[in-house]
Amino acid sequence: MRWLLIALVVVASAACTTPPSGPEQPRKGVEVLGTIPHDTSAFTQGLELVDGVLYEGTGLEGQSELRRLDPTTGEVKQQVELPSPLFGEGVTVVGAHIWQITWRDGIAIRRDRETLAEVKRVTYDGEGWGLCRDGGRLVMSDGTEELRFRDPETFDETGRVTVKRNGIPLVRINELECVGGRVWANLWQSDEVVQIDPNSGDVLATVDLSPLRPADVPKSDVLNGIAAVPGTDEFLVTGKNWPTIFRVRFRTG
Questions:
Q1: 101, 92 in Cβ contact below 8 A?
Q2: Alpha-carbon distance 121 to 86, whole Å?
Q3: Mean pLDDT in the chain?
Q4: Phi, psi of 150 (to 5 degrees)
Q5: What is the 3-state secondary structure (H, E, C) of the chain?
Q6: What is the rounded distance in angstroms from the CA atom of residue 203 to the CA atom of residue 23?
Q7: Which of 10, 25, 112, 187 has the most CB atoms around its CB within 10 Å?
Q8: CA–CA separation, 49 and 200 (whole Å)
Q9: pTM: predicted TM-score of the whole model, two decimal places
Q10: At the top level of CATH, which class does the domain 24-252 belong to?
């Protein structure tokens, strides 16, 4: 009887520790609608299209920049450098300004949207990866399974949510795009983009963008950079040092 009770306890314990799978989330493919040339020296960390201007943040120490691009030609119209040793990451527009975060430096830079000149700096704890604006709040990723919410004026943290896919925490959340009350996110070292409900943290869909990867681009130059095209269901996507920005639509099946 003692061995039977022990066996029952072990089985019950295993059942309790098994992570919930939940319903399988839909997977989407990609339809390419057009292409734009992309500077292969750009180690893309952030991408956002606002009022006909494509803003791109790039990374690497000593090479990080914020750029204004022509979204139809990919031409760099304006650029400013981040002083070394800052390593640039995600960017997002807030009114007349742009926030640009850094990787392990713990510094967020607020810039004038027209001149790209630095207005002020603030500090934060942890790493900075992706950034986007969701209504009256900013959403920031740090490479973990968490999204942090921040005040768009002060950059103070106001909350967090854990991202889960099929009930399992999802890590390596990278570049972000907020649109329609949802967050689209690149996953580092993956050819996937996921759609996240920022209130619950649940992944609502996964998109396979592997068909876009250029054959001659090393695996270390990962997919990164997603910008919604306002007024449409389309996106601009690219990767670190990729020669092309793709205009795409995500589709089921």
A1: no
A2: 12
A3: 89
A4: -135, 150
A5: CHHHHHHHHHHHHHHHHCCCCCCCCCEEEEEEEEEEECCCCCCEEEEEEECCEEEEEECCCCCCEEEEECCCCCCEEEEEECCCCCCEEEEEEECCEEEEEECCCCEEEEEECCCCCEEEEEECCCCCCCEEEECCEEEEECCCCEEEEECCCCCCEEEEEECEECCEECCCEEEEEEECCEEEEEECCCCEEEEECCCCCEEEEEEECHHHCCCCCCCCCCEEEEEECCCCCEEEEEECCCCEEEEEEEEEC
A6: 11
A7: 187
A8: 26
A9: 0.87
A10: mainly beta
Residue with tokens 């921040």: 150
> Tokens in use for 51?
């009022």
Pick left, alpha or beta for residue 86 (phi over 0 → left; psi -120 to 50 → alpha; otherwise beta). Answer: beta
Distance CA 117, CA 250 (A): 35
pLDDT at 13 > cutoff 70: no
Which residue is associated with the tokens 């876009």?
Answer: 212
Beta strands 44-50 and 107-112: pairing type? unpaired
Radius of gyration over every alpha carbon of the chain, rounded to an integer in angstroms: 20
Residue 168: partners with Cβ closer than 8 Å, 6 or more residues away: 19, 21
Question: Is 30 exposed, middle or buried, given 0-12, 13-18 or 19+ CB atoms closer than 10 A?
Answer: buried
